[in-house]
Amino acid sequence: MEFRNRLLAVRQRWWLVLMTVVLALGIAGFATIRADPKYATTVTFFVTTPNQGVSDAYQGGLFLQQRVKSYVDLLRSDRLARAVVDSRDFGLTTQEARSRITARVQPDTVLVEATVVDSDQARSVDLAREISTRFVELVQRIETPTGTDRAPVRVEVVDGPRLDPEPVSPRPVRDLPLAGLLGLLAGIVLAALRGITDTTVRDEAGLREAAQTPLLGRVPFENAARTEPLIVDDAAHSPRAEAVRKLRTNLRFVNLGEAVQVIAVTSAMQSEGKSTMACNLSIALAEAGWRVLLVDADLRRPHVAEYMGMEAGVGLTDVLIGEVAVEDVLQPWGDVPLSVLPSGALPPNPSELLGSAAMAELLTTLKGHADIVVVDTAPLTSVTDGAVIAAQCDGALLVTRRGKTTASQVAAATTALRAAGARILGAVLNMSALPKADAYQYAAYRVAPATPVRPRVPGTSGKAMAPAQKTGGDDAKRTRARKLSKASR
């Protein structure tokens, strides 16, 4: 199960794996283009010992195998590099010459192979030739005992110097696939680690566990929702619209036997889509024949009027301070039994205003104007407005955005609702991933309605626009501000 969770985490973050692979290929490609080609020249030495000095062939073989390991270090030593640089002007320092030399012992042999890598082919060959000469001399000098002229070890050049005509670096055919493989492995590791450290709610099970409440719906993410947030016209036939209709159906079976007429729609954090959800849920309920009233009670960042295409200058706050009657500011919308009460002017103290006796009385009044009242509220973890309103409603619907809200934030939101005495109807996972199979099945079974819902042109309601004339001028604005402050006390 643990391996399956890791695999699922990698699959959910496939974009991270793809980005890492593309980045690795891009770096490797750029390095390949920018790098100067380097060429290798190889020379091979054979190490042997004369008959005299070592009588036993087996012991002689062991002696030479131990010796050749030291010769590898000698080939890469400063002493040999200095001798090569001093013998001829290569335009290199001792350290630069040493950095170009590598050496190794061929396995199970007494052959030592030295390789010189340089961006200049001619210099690579000349360096290898000079190394072969100086190395033989150096070994003879070191191995010859004092007072004698014969060394127990003899080194001979048996192959080379031999230049490889193909550059050893860069090699696009080898380097690019290797970079892609390393990027793939790095991406998988990053995605798995991201999955381990990611505490956001990503699926239905995670939301249920965090909220400790039933899951009433799952609304898929659609790019078109950015420009067409409402489920009308073409969007009325989308999987998102069908998911909202399923949510409407599930709300009918919540807490059977208990009246749920006023529903607060809220979320833990901002930008989770609660206002869009409130608007679309109201439209879906009205499509089913209920008389619906949508109230924008988010008095800090109201969006309902903007989404519904209505005038927001006069609304809830004007009713609460007693400046207008609620019947005068309700704006009908579309060809369905749906009315909207915008937020009105933004008050300086929304929490007190929403928790006032005037708000409780207004909600009671609104029940007589509609079968279902949907109230859009502020996020729960940011301010107390949402909990204050939810406590006065018959139930609260918690909207959670997939991949944005953490489990701890969802838990804090539900705790805030319960602490305020609000009744939680359930949770909705918003902007969830839609499996391709589900999208295909929906498209195959989709039937377009004969008469799509069309919104009413903003500003056509005479009742809604009349009170707006009272708000003109500085004196009227100051009067309204004083009334808002008094109403919240």
List keywords for this structure.
disordered C terminus; alpha/beta; 489 residues; Rossmann fold; Alpha-Beta Plaits
Question: In a few lines, what is going on in this structure?
Answer:
Belongs to the CpsD/CapB family. Belongs to the CpsC/CapA family. With 489 residues, the chain is of the alpha/beta class.
Q: How would you describe the overall organization of this protein?
A:
This protein is an alpha/beta fold. The protein folds into three domains: 2-35 and 171-197, no CATH class; 39-163, 2-Layer Sandwich (Alpha-Beta Plaits), CATH 3.30.70; 204-487, P-loop containing nucleotide triphosphate hydrolases (Rossmann fold). 47% of the residues lie in helices and 16% in strands. It is built from 20 helices and twelve strands. The chain has helices spanning 2-12, 14-34, 57-75, 78-87, 94-99, 121-143, 172-197, 204-211, 239-252, 274-287, 304-308, 316-320, 326-329, 350-354, 357-367, 385-392, 407-419, 436-445, 462-465, 474-487, and strands at 39-48, 101-105, 111-118, 154-163, 215-220, 262-267, 292-296, 331-333, 338-341, 372-376, 395-401, 424-432. The strands form two sheets. It has an eight-stranded mixed beta sheet, with helices on both faces. Strands 2-3-1-4 form a four-stranded antiparallel beta sheet. α1 crosses α7 (172-197), α4 crosses α6 and α9 packs across α10. The longest helix is centred in the middle third of the chain and has 26 residues, at 172-197. The two termini are 56 Å apart. The model is unreliable at 456-474 and 484-489 (pLDDT under 50). Belongs to the CpsD/CapB family. Belongs to the CpsC/CapA family. Residues 7-86 form the Polysaccharide chain length determinant N-terminal domain. Residues 452-489 are annotated as: Disordered. This is non-specific protein-tyrosine kinase. Residues 479-489 have a biased composition (Basic residues).
